[in-house]
Every structure is written in C-alpha cells, then in structure tokens.
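thought: user wants a sequence for this fold. calling inverse folding tool.
action: design(structure=
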C-alpha cells in the first residue's frame, strides 16, 4: 500500500494502518534536513521500519528519525514503541499525564501549548483531556496551506473519542476539542485521527452541538 499521504512544501506526511484495529501510524519527514517525527508506534515494528525506508525518497538528505511522539497511553497505540526505541535509541515524547503509563521512558513530557522542534518543522502540542488524562494532539501549521492535526483518539470523523459513558470525561473532552481545536484552527485544517480516514474541521464543525446533545 502506498503510504504517501501529503506532499507539502517543507515536509511529507506518510501514513500506514497497522493491526486489526486499523491503527494509524504517521511519519513526517523534513525535505531539506531529512529529520523525521513518527506519531504513534502503534504495532508491527517491521511495517514501521518499511515506512521509514520508504520515506527516504522524500528527502535529498540522509533521513534520521529524531522523535517518536505518542498521542496517548492506550495499549493499541504503543505496541511497537519499545521495539523501535530499543532498535534506534530514538527520543520519545508524550503528554505529561500519560507518560508514566508508556512502556518506555519518556524524554519529553508535554503540556498544552508546548512545541516540538526538529530541523525543518515544528509541531504544537494540544492537550485534550477526557479520552485519557494526557491525550495530546500534534499540530503542524503549514506556512503555505492548512494546518494538519494529528488527533489520536480524541477526534474522529463523526465525533470525539470514547469516554466510557462518563459524562464528566465526555464534557471535558468535547469542551477541549471545541475550544482548543475548533476554536483555534480554521475549517480548512485537516484532521488525521488515530484510526480510520482523515477529515477536516469544516466537515465536523456543524455537528458539535449534535455530539453534545447525544452525549458521545
């Protein structure tokens, strides 16, 4: 399966789906420097290594995996994390409130508004509480196009993530998503979820009150 998802001026975004749970693994590669950020080492380290190999075509430099960023602690998003860290020695990042639950030490603990900079691009951390305590969306603001939001399991086409029928968690997640994503980024922003196909904020925005009314 072709993993190339977006070819942007400064970087490429590749995505593969792994496991029976259709987990998305994303790889961002800076075109000029070759520096890479992998988002969610969900499963199948061999497939992820192939993704890294494929992305060598996306840069004129020598590619280098600089960071694995994890959107949240749930097991299905971290099954290949230890194997990849052991193999590469790459640094890791995750939300502060989820970091201790990960199967590897976390080098960078992220809070809302923190920034991750590698040679060639920068990501912003958006803390979205509710699916897990430390869920983080990673946002790349393309200077020449729409923002790209890697939302983990906090926002999908058709609704927010699972909050186990807990009204407090649901209201917190929907409020954070409404304020910190829909209230911050325009309708053109592309949402890359932890499972399934991408969407845009514009496609989902008309349904926010519908989601609140239904309670999930």
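)
observation: tool returned 216 residues.
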């Amino acid at each position: 399966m072709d993993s190339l998802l977006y070819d942007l001026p400064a970087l490429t975004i590749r995505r593969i789906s792994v496991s029976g749970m259709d987990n998305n693994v994303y790889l961002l590669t800076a075109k000029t420097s070759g520096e890479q950020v992998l988002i969610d080492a969900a499963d199948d380290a061999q497939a992820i290594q192939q993704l890294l190999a494929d992305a060598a075509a996306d840069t004129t430099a020598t590619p280098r995996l600089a960071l694995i960023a994890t959107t949240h602690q749930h097991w299905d998003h971290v099954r290949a994390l230890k194997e990849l860290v052991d193999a590469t020695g790459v640094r890791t990042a995750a939300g502060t409130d989820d970091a201790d639950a990960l199967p590897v030490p976390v080098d960078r603990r992220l809070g809302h508004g923190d920034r991750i900079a590698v040679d060639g691009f920068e990501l912003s951390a958006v803390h979205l509480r509710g699916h897990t305590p430390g869920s983080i969306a990673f946002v790349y603001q393309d200077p020449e196009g729409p923002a790209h939001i890697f939302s983990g399991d906090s926002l999908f086409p058709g609704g927010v993530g699972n909050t186990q029928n807990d009204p407090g968690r649901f209201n917190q997640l929907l409020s954070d998503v409404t304020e910190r994503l829909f209230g911050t980024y325009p309708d053109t922003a592309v949402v890359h979820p932890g499972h399934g196909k991408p969407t845009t904020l514009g496609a989902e925005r008309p349904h926010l009150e519908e989601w609140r009314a239904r309670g999930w």
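thought: summarizing for user.
answer: Here is the designed sequence. Residues 42 and 77 are 4 Å apart (CA to CA).
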